[in-house]
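Pasting two entries for a bug report.
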Amino acid sequence: MRIWNCGVMVAVLGVLALVGVRAEASEPMKAIVASYLDMQQQLAGDKIDTVKAQAHAIGEQAAKLRTDRRRRQRISKQKAEQE
């Protein structure tokens, strides 16, 4: 099952690269994806050396995303009230 999941992920990434889809993401989201891919690579190789550290990194970056979203919502609300 892991090999199939890894194969599907590689195929999807390959198709996106060939098609030239440009996806912009925030730095915290890029960090989350990088940590997730590192975790998957470790797990696919039946290793768990850095899985815990990568999981903590995902949690930290998710908290940053949540903070950024709340800040943007607060600014939007303030602008709407001023109009």
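Entry 2 (this is the one that rendered wrong in the viewer):
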Amino acid sequence: MNLLALVGCHKDISPRELFVGNKIAFFPTNWEQHLRAEISEMEALSEEARTALRLERRSGKPLIARYIARKLTSSNPSFVPKSLKEIINKAISVSWEEACVIDSRKV
């Protein structure tokens, strides 16, 4: 089943670029690979996070992402990668249509 169709997106979308829609956003690869091009110190920050959080090599992806996000946004000046700004701005501007968890027609 096409995951985009599942969320009501029937457009022909190139998987080679970031997609930000009213209901979904997705990276063409994954968060880490996509943002490596926008965050020059991604590897160093990942290693710093693993050390600070005492994480093993193949664990802690959400913790590392949160660590990097906090580190970048708390720097002076703060830094938010272009891709994430695009997703955040879209999320702020989208109006609520219905719940995705329950059948909102029954509420």
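Dev reply: Rendering is fixed now. As a check, the viewer should reflect this: The helical segments are 3-6, 31-36, 42-53, 61-74, 82-93.
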